[in-house]
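WP5 quarterly update. Target: Cullin N-terminal domain-containing protein. Source organism: Hydnomerulius pinastri MD-312. Length: 287 aa.
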Amino acid sequence: MSSRKIVVKLPSSRQNYSSWAIIIRCLDELIALENHKLASYSLYVFMYTAVLNHLTGSSRSGLDAGRPVVPGMAELKLDALVSPGRAGGEVYCTILNKLNVHLEGILQRAMELRREALLEYYSSQWARYASLAKLLGNICVHISTHWVKSTMGGRDDIYSVPVLAITRWKSVFVDGLQRADQKLTNALLSLIASQRSGESINSELLKSILASLATLGRSGGHGETETLDVYEEVFETPFLDDAREYYRQCAKFIAQGPSEACQKAVGVGISGNIQKVEEIGRLKVES
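Structure tokens (predicted):
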């Protein structure tokens, strides 16, 4: 992959453009990047400055037709705010809308995959998306530190930009997969079933997805507190139910007096289950 930095192409100086136009252009550029480490410093600075200008009202050229019309403002009850609070809502809802569109796109691709191919896709997209969330958090720090906690201090359903990105991943991508016959859960259990049968699996792939799920549960003011709710719902509870049924079948099988080879195969499966239970315990302690 090329290490060339990506430079945003802004309108020429002869064009009439505003901080709002720069925000939209830079946001589209950022979301489209395959590797967010390649985001140029100029792209970072352009958007950081444009967000600040939009919040403070120091740049209003190009807004002759009035304030930007941003979908979602009414649903979040932000349309009644007056500037500068309204300006923060405009940026916030624009980020939310564009993340939703991006996530719907990768969800559509994921729906064509299953089992390990789905898990590999999840892992690669999560790594890219987590990087995007961090970058947006740095660029939109004024939204997170001032607008969210000051103007919207009484609203626990309004999040800092990095947390907003995480909640969208869960609501759009993970919930979308789960609505399709528990697609993510089944892929995880399928991988573990392969290990039970003695196959070699990519344990790092499994760990990366479980670590992702462990960050998605949120509670408290502005969702700042991580919980294991999503991890437990998507993986832990189904895994323990599946393991319980596996042990029941093993006990029944062994009671029938199978051969030594069969007993060894059962032992491999039980060992794999014990290893996963131990990993669950470590993950909960670390969280």
